[in-house]
Write a structure and sequence with these properties.
heterodimer, A: alpha+beta, Rossmann fold, OB fold (Dihydrolipoamide Acetyltransferase, E2P), 6-stranded mixed β-sheet, 10 helices, 20 strands, B: mainly alpha, MetI-like fold, globular, binds adenosine-5'-triphosphate, binds magnesium ion
Chain lengths: 383, 267
């Protein structure tokens, strides 16, 4: 992580609406020039967090600091941040260049300066020559670019983006991800980006903030979040995870499935119950007689790069990603190296995730990154 | 079957419009008679525009219509925005209150306003029945029509437009003017035209709230007819009919022009 100067600080933010806690005790520090992503399932409070920074929501308690100064009294129109709204919110009665010039006209900038900036912005977002076009003649991706140009034309210190690519198709989304990242790098401004797409979050961000139920679950670099999830929720939400009950006997030694495994983790009490995370791609399959554990293959799905193989170990089903094909009912062994095992403290999310017993392909075909594969959480996903 | 329905339609239209047609034709009659056609002439139109009583009533009608339109459009638009911003339960109640005066018999509204004005005049000496009470009553009954026209536009409005404008540096009022107003303008214009038409058109409420000092055209005609029906009445009625007709056509054109655009946007 960069150790540059802090630009935004959220301190102990609490928001409730209709007696329901939307955000509880949220603390977040954001450095100047950072690309921060708020990641979490629908309804976890991402938009609300963004709106607090933008000044559109006043928290019940807690403070927002900008450059160390409390922003409580600062209305949205005076904050040095600009927002890209989920549905763009372009002004339909204005053409492309008047949309982009909107903020500068409000500030009373000079005509020549406005024209020059509009052209520079349209060039930045690859819309040269679109000056006179009406908004309703633009495609979704083009409208998105106009929204970006409009926000950047105001020269904000911080850009807030609320699922800006959610409405675009996959191909365009990938292109725009790269483009946004480039824009952020070349302008050097801070991006606070909201998404519920974990791939997007991992590939674009300097820092990922994983949220659930109005609380921050973990803050870290994409690698930290992926390799060292703090609890079962993070482990499950980011990528695929097998999560098992274990006992941490001492530093570097954990027991699960009645067998002791060496690991790399320290700092737990003696014999503390823990959650053990094993990523499906870290597991090596070996002949049954050579494995630490043996199990039976119950389902195999071809995913292009690998086979997603579901294996039954004593009634607990694991997902293993392997490039070799093992047919259903074959008996295999697995080897777990110390670096494949990650130990987490028990949390309220323990036992909710990480079992692939109810796994079915149909879920996967929905292509929805939010769909959890356990039954109790699948019921929560509505949209 | 087809012919039958045509005949039926014909009869209905005849009943509806024959009296008006007769009235219009005889406004051009070159004699005092309301039965015998004596040839085309504009003499009654000339006479009309030399009749001081009618001219002053025309002034009252037009000036009241214009001022009532402006004031009720501003209040009605603000009211619609207010109604839109409260929770849905309260919104339904407020809309019911808004719609009530439109279905309420005009005579009830008229008498109620009259009693109110008289009460205020007796107790405080303010609001002597006359031009100002007439204006107030017209503003009052025009507001619901404006609210009704602006509401659907507000419903279609993207709530983030206002926030986007504020985000880009507009103070709340500027944001409203620059981002929201252009989107709801068609509704406001239709509402204003409706208000203008309603004000021009009104008789019952005006009768109860105008007082001696300021009477609008319809009340003046009523008073004249009670004395003696002159052909001038025909000409005046023809002009009023024409004015209201033009206004209604304008309202319809406005609504048609803004409708297909909305459909495109919502699809
Ligand atoms: N204006 C509001 N009135 C009442 N409740 C609200 C309001 N805005 C948000 N909430 C509630 O706050 C919670 C968090 O909402 P928020 O919009 O921040 O979620 P989100 O993480 O952005 O979700 P999504 O991914 O679906 O956009 C939700 O439970 C939502 O119902
Ligand atoms: Mg959201």
């Amino acid at each position: 992580m960069q150790t540059t100067k802090e630009i935004i600080k959220l301190k102990d933010i609490t928001v409730s609406s209709d007696g329901e806690q939307v955000l509880s005790g949220l603390d977040l520090n954001i450095s100047d020039g950072e690309f921060v992503t708020l990641l979490g399932p629908s309804g976890c409070g991402k938009t609300t967090t963004l709106r607090i920074i933008g000044g559109f929501v006043t928290p019940d308690s807690g403070s927002v600091f900008f450059d160390g100064k409390d922003m409580a009294k600062l209305p949205p129109y005076k904050r040095p941040v600009n927002t890209i709204f989920q549905r763009y919110a372009l002004f339909p009665h204005l053409n492309v260049q008047d949309n982009v010039a909107f903020g500068m006209r409000v500030q009373g900038k000079k005509k020549t300066e406005i024209r020059e900036t509009v052209d520079r912005m349209l060039k930045l977002v690859n819309l040269v020559g679109f000056n006179e076009r009406r908004i309703d003649t633009l495609s979704g991706g083009q409208q998105q670019r106009v929204a970006i140009a409009r926000a950047l034309a105001n020269n904000p210190r911080v850009l807030l983006l609320d699922e800006p690519l959610a409405a675009l198709d996959l191909k365009l989304r990938k292109d725009m991800q790269a483009e946004l990242k480039n824009i952020q790098k070349s302008l050097g401004i801070t991006f606070i980006y909201v998404t519920h797409d974990q791939e997007e979050a991992l590939s674009m961000s300097d820092t990922v903030v994983v949220m659930d139920a109005g609380r921050i679950q973990q803050i870290g670099t994409p690698q930290d979040i992926y390799n060292e999830p703090k609890n079962a929720f993070v482990a499950d939400f980011i990528g695929e995870s097998n999560i098992l009950d274990g006992i941490m006997h001492e530093d570097y030694l954990v027991e699960f499935f009645g067998r002791k495994f060496p690991c790399l983790d320290t700092g737990f009490d003696k014999d503390e119950p823990v959650d053990v995370v094993i990523r499906p791609e870290d597991i090596d399959i070996v002949p049954a007689n050579q494995g630490h554990l043996t199990g039976t293959v119950t389902a195999v799905t071809f995913k292009g790069v690998h086979f997603e193989t579901i294996v039954d170990f004593k009634g607990f089903k694991w997902m293993i990603q392997t490039t070799d094909y093992y047919p259903v009912d074959s008996i295999i062994g697995i080897v777990l190296n110390p670096e494949d095992i990650h130990i987490m403290k028990k949390s309220e999310y323990s036992d909710m995730f990480g079992d692939y017993s109810s796994y079915s392909d149909e879920f996967d075909e929905l292509g929805n990154p939010e769909v959890d594969l356990t039954e109790d959480t699948a019921a929560e996903v509505e949209e | 079957m087809k012919t039958l329905s045509r005949v039926y339609n014909g009869i209905i239209f005849a009943f509806l419009y024959a009296p008006i047609l007769v009235l219009i034709i005889f406004s051009f009659n070159d004699s005092k008679s309301r039965v015998v056609w004596n040839g085309f002439s504009l003499r009654w139109y000339e006479a009309l525009f030399q009749n001081d009583e009618i001219l002053s009533a025309l002034w009252v009608t037009l000036s009241i219509a214009i001022v009532a339109t402006i004031v009720s459009t501003i209040i009605g638009t603000a009211a619609a925005i207010g109604i839109r911003s409260v929770n849905s339960k309260l919104r339904r109640v407020l809309l019911a209150f808004n719609n009530l005066p439109m279905v309420n018999p005009e005579i009830v509204t008229g008498i109620a306003l009259m009693l109110l004005f008289v009460f205020i005049y007796r107790t405080t000496g303010l609001l002597q029945p006359g031009y100002f009470t007439l204006l107030l009553s017209h503003i009052t009954f025009c507001i619901p029509y404006v609210v009704l026209q602006v509401m659907p536009k507000l419903r279609q409005l993207d709530p983030h437009l206002y926030e986007a404008a504020v985000d880009l540096g507009c103070r709340p009022f500027t944001a409203f003017i620059r981002a929201v107003l252009p989107q709801i303008m068609p509704g406001i214009i239709t509402g204003a035209l409706m208000a203008f038409t309603m004000s021009l058109d009104d008789f019952v409420i005006s009768l109860f709230t105008s007082g001696e000092s300021a009477q609008n055209l319809s009340v003046t005609i009523y008073a004249m007819v009670k004395r003696r029906v002159t052909p001038e009445i025909n000409t005046l009625s023809t002009l009023m009919f024409g004015a209201v007709l033009i206004m209604l056509i304008l309202v319809n054109v406005m609504q048609i022009r803004s409708a297909p655009k909305d459909k495109r946007r919502s699809s």
